[in-house]
Amino acid sequence: MRTLIRPDADWPYQTETIDSSPCRATDELAARLGVRSGVTLRRETIECMDPGGRSAMLVSSWWRGRRLPHSSYVVELGVVALDASQAHALGLIVDTPAYRLVRTRLDAAGRATETADLMLPMDRWTIRL
Known about the structure:
single chain, mainly beta, Chorismate lyase, seven-stranded antiparallel beta sheet, two-stranded parallel sheet, 11% helix
């Protein structure tokens, strides 16, 4: 078991980018980023490995334009069932329960610069915030 303490910290181990394609903002993403629904966003999904090379979590990030520096962030914690692509990437079965941390990075004025979903399998993680 690993313990997540700092959801905005850089991952210290190996990562692999599994998606880096543009997408259109859904209503949810538009609300999280303060943009119009349907606007083109940049998207990146990375698989974070533990020190032994086992898949530890998935991080999907969305932002508009180029990535901007942030000065703070907010996090919401929930629980979801993994969909087929998430489960496959993590080596688990579909509908496995996972923590979903919705992290939104903010600039000095409090505007969203980037938002991300951190998917952490519940059998591998505890959360301490």
